[in-house]
Request: fold
Amino acid sequence: MLELSSNTASLPAKVEGSVNVPLRPDSAPTIPGDAAPAPVAARTDDGASPSEADLEAGRLLFARPTRFMLSVADLDQLPQAGPPEIAFAGRSNVGKSSLVNALTGHRAIARTSNTPGRTQQLNFFDQDGRLRLVDLPGYGYAKAPKAQVDAWQRLVFAYLRGRPNLRLVLLLIDGRHGLKKVDEEVMQMLGKAAVPYRVVLTKSDLVGAGELAGRADDIAATLRRMPAAIGEPIATSAARNHGFEELRAVLAAHAESATDAP
Reply:
């Protein structure tokens, strides 16, 4: 069932020419020292509509402080595996950083920009010691040198394929444009790596209700062919604060219990 995310990209960077880099997900290295990706783990997030108890769990989790941990530009800088991690992936300028801000209730914990490809590193945030949020560089089009974008994408795919405590990827799709070929390539890569993902539509306030519903139905039909996909698309709007109660409930289902957190 549809609801409404946020939207613009992220961290400052030196900008040069524009490039459109083809994805090569199968060439991404695995993270040194990690075993091959495990099968999709059993999960409490089964894609069903959240109950009142689920919504309350999400509210309580995100009522707690969100803390920026670190930015990672290379695999050897990754923090030691700890609490479950939720990664935010999507095309450049889809709105990952804005969504993180709206989700956590912080206006600028993740920096945003209107320039595609400004998030250049993996940015880690701690949610009450029970969950980590990971804002990834966008894939596809970016205003940056080709070699630099290649390096970002190698880092992103290596993280997605080899991180042992990665529990879920939120795959962000611009509600105005729908699914692109590059998004389907990422879905296939996640499926091969046995990483579960949930589609989140962003900027949904900029689309008419009928058009948005049709787009969501088309995406849902594609997802039914993807074994690692979970549930129906969640439509969000940071501008109108729509869709975030459900999204928080989804994330809370993956968090460590309060008694397990340090």
